[in-house]
Description:
The protein is mainly alpha-helical. The protein is 70% helix and 3% strand. It has one domain (32-219, 282-467): Growth Hormone, Chain: A. The chain has 20 helices and 6 strands. Helix 2 runs antiparallel to helix 6 and helix 3 runs antiparallel to helix 6. The radius of gyration is 24 Å and the shape is globular.
Amino acid sequence: MRVNDGTGSSAGTGGLVRTAIPARLDRLPWARFHWMVVIGLGTVWILDGLEVTMVGAVGSRLTEDDSGISLSSGDIGTAAAIYVLGSCLGALFFGQLTDRFGRKRLFLLTLGVYIAATTATAFSLTPWFFFLTRFFTGAGIGGEYAAINSAVDELIPARVRGRVDLLINGSYWLGSAAGSGLTVFLLSEHFAADVGWRLAFGLGALLGLVILVVRRHVPESPRWLFIHGRADDAEEIVGGIEAEVQAQSGERLAEPATRITIRQRSVIPLRTIASTAFRTYPRRAVLGLALFIGQAFLYNAFTFDLGTILTTFYGVSSATVPVFLVVYALGNCAGPLVLGRLFDTLGRQPMIAGTYLAAAAFGVVLAVLFQAGALTAWTFLAVVAVTFFFASAGASAAYLTVSEIFPMETRALAIAFFYAVGTGVGGIAGPLLFGHLIDTGRTGPVMVGFLVGAVVMAVGGVAELMFGVDAAGRSLEDIAAPLTAIEDQEPCPDGPAVEVPVGPSPAGSTAAARAHPGSA
């Protein structure tokens, strides 16, 4: 047998194990366990939406003399940039730790970092301390992206993985809407100027504590365990899940359809993980970059500058802006909720390409109508809402894509890398460009900004048409074989592989799944 580690090397190899665990997880009917995964892990996106929106909504309060911190307008922008920087660096740092030390350790650690940092934010008295706490809040959230998306995809059955991922990622906008509505109340005359904004951050930390209690019961990814030499632990977890599901449904589970043979390794070199995306899967790497940069540019540009556009060009008061932001957030949430199922039924490629290209088309319509002066504040928001109905579903699918199309050993780091690069390039360039264009006070330059946003989304859609991977309903190991997977054509030089039992269900096929690495 030959070890396929993406480099041709078999260094650091261990025992062979043939297991049906991936197939056993994928054939499970939807049960209470899966809801626990969604609630315990997926709610991180609500926290991110809450954090980003709250800072934007309380920004004007923090610049007031009686706020207890007295930041300048420039400091608010600096804090936003520091938060984004923290999330990018946190994703990269915690992402590689997630692949090395496991999903559960890291999704508990990163949530702990978020809770501690956002609690500290509520007690900020000086700008430098506020910046520091925002950096570590961002780092915790960025680390969450890598740990959470990888764990969710490895625990959710393949047939519903797309819609579940989109629903979870789209819940960011529930947090955004909640943050906008919450700050309207907390910044009212019911609270002192130096108290309301602190309570806003404190409530974020409290929500994080509630999520942590639920998250403690989510198990480690069995897929990660059996590859890292802990097949017995993986079997115990999957057996427990199967017993729970059978008890709830009262039906005997179907036989697992396939098995995979892997060579267990407790540590997989970082250089092997890092080189896989661009050497083994270069077309997929280009796809990931195009999708992430496009959505990061469009989203950060609009989210950070929508209030400024409304006040500058439509005379909307700053006190009314949060109401518009709630509508904007709900429109974004509707996209993944309404369209999510189609990503599993029609397929990834037509839906991802279609949502990116539809968002680009409506972006052009928005630019033309805006320049022509044909829109009021509310009709402007209506066109924006339609544009982001599609853009939100596409942006959520970007996270799904990079989580699915790379080998399991690299999954968390791949999510972290594409998130960091996409956010670092598009997430910084978008707000900077739009901010300068809005400062001109003229519709022409802003129209150009809308058209640039449409172009970068169109590039993402075209990249999906060219390089998209048919991942709907397929096992993760079939989409991209683990680096430790064995091609079962040759006699095994180390003797027979150890058979991992298949729990309460009869054993399935004894044929090992073939590895499917490639450049597409």
